[in-house]
Amino acid sequence: MLFELDQLQVDTATFESRGTADDRRDRAMLDAMRARKVVTSALRVTHTPGPKDALLWVPDVVCGAVTQHRIGEDQYIELLAAQIDIIAIAAS
Prior knowledge:
- By secondary structure, the protein is mainly α.
- The chain has two domains: 1-50, no CATH class; 53-92, no CATH class.
- It is 45% helix and 11% strand.
- The chain has four helices and two strands, in the order αβαβαα.
- The chain has a two-stranded parallel sheet.
């Protein structure tokens, strides 16, 4: 996801905080991606507790719609289709 955000020239991504240790791992991943030049140094990641920002629930809604789509229930993905791009990444 960080690669795609960087390609879209997003400068700040706000993640829901999952605690100090997990937030630190997120930042370490970003640093590793910068070191490998997978993303630019312009991309920043911040963490916010979920209850402080209702917009942090949007990824959960999208995830639910995509999950329903994958099991054949398309009503939710159809509501979001004009606003989202689904990028499938094959696991190796």
